[in-house]
Design brief:
With 158 residues, this protein is α+β, with helices and mostly antiparallel strands. 29% of the residues lie in helices and 39% in strands. The protein starts with 11 loop residues before the first strand and ends with a helix.
Length: 158
């Protein structure tokens, strides 16, 4: 049997952070819309959920509101959920009237002696798409800020 392995590093954005909280708590903060709205998005953003159905085949439709007043509609289509360790989904979104922030995402929650190593991996169809979201939406810094906000939020919960 021949296996094909596709290299995607030039089309990826990977964000990792060791969070000083148990995996189950980080999972809960990620999978409950009441918690998600408290921390989701880069610094200065707020999030409003329109629909949330956390299951394989389910969706999370939400709008991220930028500090400058710009709205960014987002569509997440859940594919695989393995509690409390893995979430995969496809993402669509961007500014109102655009759908230029499309990618596939894998989120892993790894237990590290009572802490959680959280890894977000976004894979884009092309290098150009990746570069577009890095330039247009500051995706690398935004991912780092989002996970930092999650870290701060779970510290309040524990």
């Amino acid at each position: 049997m021949n296996a094909r392995v596709e290299a995607t590093t030039d089309r990826e954005i990977v964000t990792e952070r060791l969070i000083n909280a148990p995996r189950e708590l980080v999972w809960k903060a990620w999978t409950d819309p009441k918690h998600l709205e408290q921390w989701w998005g880069p610094t200065g953003f707020t999030t409003t959920t329109k629909e949330f159905d956390f299951k394989p085949g389910g969706v999370w439709f939400h709008t991220m509101h930028g500090p400058d007043g710009t709205d960014y509609p987002n569509e997440i289509y859940y594919e695989e959920i393995l509690e409390p360790s893995l979430i995969t989904y496809t993402h669509g979104g961007g500014e109102v009237g655009a759908n230029d922030a499309q990618f596939h995402s894998t989120i892993t929650f790894d237990d590290q002696d009572g802490k959680t190593l959280l890894t977000m991996r976004a894979v884009f169809d092309t290098v150009a798409q990746r570069e577009h979201v890095v330039k247009m939406y500051h995706a690398i810094a935004g991912g780092q800020q989002t996970i930092a906000r999650l870290d701060e939020y779970v510290m309040k919960l524990s």
